[in-house]
Structure formats: C-alpha cells, structure tokens
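Appendix C: a fully annotated inverse folding record. The material below is reproduced so that readers can follow the format used throughout the book. The structure is listed first as tokens, followed by the designed sequence.
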C-alpha cells in the first residue's frame, strides 16, 4: 500500500487567473510587435555580441 517513491522536491507555483494570463501574454505580444517593427525599420540597435577566443590545451 505504501509504494511511494521520492522523486524530488516540488516547487508549486500559485495559479493565475485567465485574465492575468491574458494580460501578461498581450503585453509580451505588444512588446514583440514593437521590437519587430523597429527591427524592420532599422531603428532597433542591437549590440554586437562580444567575440571571445579560447585556446584549448592539446
């Protein structure tokens, strides 16, 4: 009857309402649309990723 196994620690997250989910998703969508529009117009300045070189020992 006690065939339970310990799998790991659980970190439960609080449930959110559909309205909160919708607001969060809509804000993310609007941000993405603005970024996309700026990128298409050439006004979005994205920093160049820094190039690094590593020597690996042979």
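Designed amino acids, in order:
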């Amino acid at each position: 009857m006690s065939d339970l196994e310990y799998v790991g620690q659980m970190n439960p997250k609080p449930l959110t309402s559909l309205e909160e989910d919708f607001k969060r998703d809509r804000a993310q969508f609007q941000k993405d649309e603005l970024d996309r529009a700026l990128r298409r117009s050439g006004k979005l300045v994205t920093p160049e990723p820094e190039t690094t070189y590593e020597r690996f020992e042979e």
